[in-house]
# Entry
Amino acid sequence: MQTTIFVSANKMERNGRIIDARYDLTNEQLGKQLYEEGHIEGAIFWDLNDDLSDMTRNEGRHPLPSKEQLQQLFERSGLHVNDAIYIYDQGASPFATRAWWILHYAGFQHAYIVNGGYQAMKAAGFAISEEVPTFAPTTLNLQWNDEILLKRSDIVRVVDEKANVTLLDARANVRYRGEEEPMDAVAGHIPTAKNYDWEQLREGANLVITSSLLEKVKKDEEIIVYCGSGVTATPVYSILKQAGYEQVKIYMAGYSDWVKHEPIEIGENL
# Structure
């Protein structure tokens, strides 16, 4: 299985495929605007809402597209399973990690997140272009990693059975504790879940492995990461995989799905 996930711009293969995943949750058009104004030469653009989510589905705020939709995205992007694929966003953000997780779910073994994002690649000498590249479509035979994607019913079973599994909530601590909730109808968290705010992984424009995260979870236990809508859980997931954790899964629909159907908990689980 892939263990190197985050790479620096200086260590990229110059002939790899490049994906621009820049986005802003408070300004949904910003990523597209930035791409049009200038992107790394040869990069295609994947939008969080249009490409990496299916906003017509009712599974949280950023529902994962179907396998068929994702395969179509990969094929019209001209990707091959063995391509070296480098994904960047604005740096220390959860959008390149969301795109990486989706490729990982689809069985791509050579996809990487560029730490430092767009500015790091620019500083490393990658050319900037306004031209939108085109690639010949491909036909893919994908081997999906179904075991890493969990549904609400799986989480219900974990909670009800008090299984030896760590649920890890990647949202801000005030939302987890139930003190504030700007997006969902009810504040709190999934029962039994612990909290690790994904933003603690940010160091400048990089996402880094932290001792506080490694102390929160053990390598020999199953870890299920979730957030509000399946975006900010992906930095925690990818950092844990980079650190060599093997039993990591994700509840992509997240709290925004759970809270509509199941009871919640407030306070802190240590």
Q: What stands out?
A: Residues 117 and 230 are 20 Å apart (CA to CA). The chain has nine helices and 13 strands. Residues 95-105 form the longest helix (11 residues). Residues 150-258 form a domain with the Oxidized Rhodanese; domain 1 fold (CATH 3.40.250.10).
